Amino acid sequence: MGEVYRARDLRLRRDVAIKVLPASFSSDPERLRRFEQEAAAAAALNHPNIVAVYQMGNYEGAPYLVAELLEGETLREEMARGPIAVRKVSEYGAQIARGLAAAHEKGIVHRDLKPENLFITRDGRVKILDFGLAKLTESQASSATSAPTVGTPTDPGVVMGTAGYMAPEQVRGEGADHRADIFALGAILYEMVAGRRAFQKATSAETMTAILKEDPASISQIAPATPPALQRVVNRCLEKNRERRFQSASDLAFALEALSDAGTSSGIARPPETAASVWNWRWLAGVVAAIVVLGGIVAWLSTPARPPRVLGTTQLTHDGIRKFNIATDGARLYIGESGSTYRIVQVSVNGGDTSPIPTPFANSVLLDISPDHTRLLMLSQVATEAHMPLWSLPLPSGAPRHLADLASTADPGGATWSPDGQRLLFTSGSDIYEANADGANPHKLVTSQGNQFCPMFSPDGKRIRFSVRNHGVDSLWEMPVDGSNVREVLRPEQGPANASCGFWSIDGRYYFFWAPGQGGGNVWVMRDGGGLLGRRRSPPIQLTTGPLGINAAAVSLDGKKLFVGAEQGRAELVRYDPKAQQFVSFLSGISAGELDYSRDGQWVTYILYPDQTLWRSHADGSNRLQLTFAPLLAGLPRFSPDGTQIAYIAHQEGQKWKVYLVPRDGGTPQDVADTPYDQLDPSWSSDGKKLAFGRFGEIETGGIHLVDLATRQVSDIPGSQKLFSGRWSPDGQYMAALTTDSTKLALFNFKTQTWSDWVTEPGAFGFPNWSADSQYLYYDTTLTENATFRRVKVGRNHSELLADLKGLLRYTTPPAFQWSGVAPDGSALFVRDLSTDEVYALDLELP
């Protein structure tokens, strides 16, 4: 902002820079304020890493300031020539941090730090420029009378800064303190090392969304030679939560200086040779050479190989249907899809239109392909049957052959053939079985605590890895093929806390697996031993990063490509119009669900998809406010009877789901009870003094509990075993709940303290909700083939049909619930799935 001229100070005999604000700008009060603010902020600081301002004045209506003359180039100009050497990155970063520390000590926050505002002089000194967006922090303003006032704080909700370098709190328009500068410096350090920006999308809005929701690609993938210590410094600067960043620029400067010092070398003077040492120099040289060779071998074995990375991406399919499994024979991809039904399709590995593989089943679930690529392994699924038949399906066509029955699990993916095609491995609940390839002679190999899924033989056929889901957390386990010595593959400190569904590259050198993350699932990879001299296993690294969520993956036979099914989650809130008998957008069709109204109908609270964050707004959608933030995942919000608080469930990956309370207008959430089990389904008493909740992850045992919000004491509702989804009626007289098999609706009378069967009609019940007058209970039957929305009146045992849901594709992307609700006028509300899911080929580099 402004024009800069080189000038000569005749009095002090020095060259200076004069920055002049043109008349067209000086007539703008905001630009003039920023110009004066820049001068006042810089003039208050005297530090070798901050440009010095000597004077400010006004000549014929043109404001100007006189500053030291800098000769060199901006950091942006230097970065344009490519990534900067690691040593320089540490040195530059330490200088910038020292300059920021000086500003922060004066209570001044820059708020617009970027490469254009950093100048590198010819002697390698960094100068911080342009304090035009600087802010005097309130803490310093109130305590340090010597600190100048450089401008009033920005109003909450006003976004100030440059997209790509703003901290998340700046993007949200919140008050920005000195830690926003630390985030910006982290983005600059990242860019210096990687040669590309940490956050850069097609538009500023998309870039700011990425800052809020995405993590930049790991530096190790882009610049593998970067020291891990520098990567940790950058990652800490870029923490979304400012409480997890460096808490002072001085600490950051110290860390960067330590890195710079660690990279230096010092010469050590050698003592003069003595005559006694000359005679055996050849023997010593031989010993030294042997030590060097041995040390080189040890170092090579102990040093991990260059990490795998993705070099490019190509979209292969265009049908938009969700993918959950992929297999390949080298020429074609076989894809399991889940639209209105489960089906198997095929496409060339080079892409094109998908075509269905004919089967005699309404729902065909792909599991695996045989080692000789002549058969597919698949399930046939019918509604909610307890066991799913396992079949062998000939390629390219033919009659399927029955192999075995599998217990249904949350994850289709319970069988595989051995590499030699002689054995079959399949899961049944908490058990893993082995059988002949045709399903004959099955016998149990192992039983675990939790459901087992995604079994896989190692390429050499000597090991079996599988996934275990226990209390909602997935983990990877391994055992020899005889089922002995079962052990966990990854401890929590070694990788992501929630890992599952792994598979090897064909040569067995690399092991890929799936783990959830912000925006959806991602593929991780680790070197799994083998190779020359048996290089050891390497720690896992994240191979893919958002914004698409990975649902399925398979590696090509040559190891050069990774085929992934990647989903872009999108939902639409809809209302059923009974007159038109169709679903129409509600609240402008926001991508949200799990909505609840306040008792007076003035407010709504809901979960935004796919972020899984909690929001509230007026009933017309205005005055929106975000109440929870990533990485916290929220669900099932409920307004208190007086409309001042919201109860909801939330958790972070690897932790328990708990019920929390948050004020309607925002504040610090508080958990309501500490229990050994995950908590589900908060529901308010009519007086707002108690909450009912169920168990999550223990549906088979059930149980509905009450917590007194004054004492935080937890008690059980008598006889609620084998029940879940408890819903307190608004008048406080009843509690409605579902049996754990979802086949009955039960009613608890608080006066008589007894349960009774309420509705026992055929079908599976889901998501009950009371009417505001406590006369009706609404629910859906989406767990059956003929999905409907119904209601039943208190005192009656038979329901009435309100809507046919067969034509509605429901949003069910985990951890979202297949929700249905009721508006104050009795309208039925649902969430329509508008997500797209395609298969992409990722070009791999596997060193």
Fold and architecture overview:
The structure is a single chain. With 847 residues, the protein is of the alpha+beta class. Among the domains are: 75-262, Transferase(Phosphotransferase), domain 1, CATH 1.10.510.10; 309-568, TolB, C-terminal domain (Neuraminidase, 6 Propeller); 593-662. The chain contains 13 helices and 57 strands. A 4-stranded antiparallel sheet has the order 1-2-4-3, covered by helices on one side. A hairpin with a 6-residue loop joins strand 16 (375-380) and strand 17. Helix 4 runs antiparallel to helix 7 (178-194) and helix 10 (228-237) packs antiparallel against helix 11. The longest helix has 22 residues, at 281-302. It is globular. It starts with a strand and ends with a strand. 42% of the residues are buried. Residues 136-159, 263-279, 408-412 and 530-535 have low confidence and may be disordered.
Q: How many alpha or pi helices?
A: 13
CATH class of the domain at 309-568: Mainly Beta
- At CATH's second level, what is the architecture of the domain at 309-568? 6 Propeller
Give the overall form.
Answer: globular
Q: Portion of residues in helices?
A: 10-25%
CATH topology of the domain at 309-568: Neuraminidase
Oligomeric state of shown chains: single chain
Structural class: alpha+beta
Radius of gyration: 32 Å
Overview in brief:
The protein is of the alpha+beta class. Helices cover about 15% and strands about 40% of the residues.
